[in-house]
Amino acid sequence: MGWLRKLWNFTIGMVLLVAVWQAAIWIGGYEEALFPSPPTVGAAIVSMVADGTLWEHLRVSLGRFAAGYLLAIVPAILLGMMLGRMPRTWKIVDPVVQVLRPVSPVAWSPFIVLWFGIGNMPAIAIIFIAAFFPVLLTTVAGVRKIDQDYLKIAENMEIRKWPLMYKIIFPAAFPSIVNGLHLALGTAWVFLVAGEMVGAQSGLGFLIIDARNTLKLDHVFAGIVFIGLSGFILDRLITIFEHWVGRHFGTSSAA
Asked: Where are the domains of the chain?
């Protein structure tokens, strides 16, 4: 019962986190108005869940995240598999990628707001930028590390073009691609919240900014808690997807 063990470990970790949180308040002597306690934040979460506020902002954030993430990873994987097979072209493209990759997606936000206005598109564009480069780089790296014997066998069997990509290159590079998907997910989720703090009127990032402006720090902490839990769940979903694809291509022994 591996899932029971994981649930037990998760519960212990959360209990320890809440205990440290409460201990910090007691030791520091902080007032509730400055550092809300776990019971206060719990009450805020219950209130926001009951009136639907939290679910509405979470739904909007997840929709934006799904759009930006999928728009980024699909072309990044396809482009990465092609560039990984074209070393001379990659030598030209790689410096461009290395110059653009370190630039924070939020740094583009003034231009993004000017180009797309306010609403969903700025947040989606920021997520796209945050997720694209990690997946592209790990895909290229994975393709370049493929055992050449696989490619020779495919050539002898006259497997070329897209069948070669689907049957040989993608499964062989998949472990590296998954690393990029995990990295891109965490990065994109962080910058989603940052993007919603800049040019959105809804979502978890906006919820935190709005609560801060009205000095409802218990609501700020409630938003933080849901951001963390949502990121954790998304990471587990990527892991499930990894196992499913691994079983499909016979590259994973995990259940």
From this structure: 1-30, 36-249
Q: Which tokens is 48 given?
A: 């926001």
Tell me the whole-structure pTM to 2 decimals: 0.82
CA distance 86 to 174: 18
CATH class given for the domain over 36-249: mainly alpha
Tens of pLDDT, residue by residue over 194-207, are 778 766 778 888 88
Q: Give dist(CA 47, CA 50) in Å, integer.
A: 5
CA distance 124 to 71: 9
**Interval 156-165: pLDDT, tens:** 666 667 777 7
